[in-house]
Model the fold of this input.
Amino acid sequence: MQGRGDSCCREQVNDGLLEKLFEIENQRKLSVGGAATLLSNILQNSKFYPYFVQLMIAGYDATGPHIFDLDAIGSAEEEKKFFSTGSGSPMALGVLEDSYKEGLTVEEGGKLAMRSIKSAIERDIGSGGKSIDIATITKEGVKIVRNPIDKIAK
Done:
């Protein structure tokens, strides 16, 4: 995900407070869809003074893997295969649409994500940085690998 969405709704979602409250009240973990709905409601509440963000929520729950995208006024949609956001997303989506196929291994998916982000960095002045972070979300948890740009093969 490109950009700085981390300041969005910080006062409402402070360190997962609402998620923990849900778990205590309901004796179960909040699903990925539930988290998307919670954030959607928070964004909808501020639609007249919106946070100018486009967010992505991804996770793995009892029903499997999920990706949701949310806009500034709380519209949420579940994506079925992949999603990209930010100024470089048209370039990244082009690579994803061209090369994604069902049944990719985690390693193949990571390489495809890296290629799509690298494509965005090369063609969009608003994308970039010194590394590409790839987050892999599985049943076992989340693994984030930082890949310095200067070490990525052409």
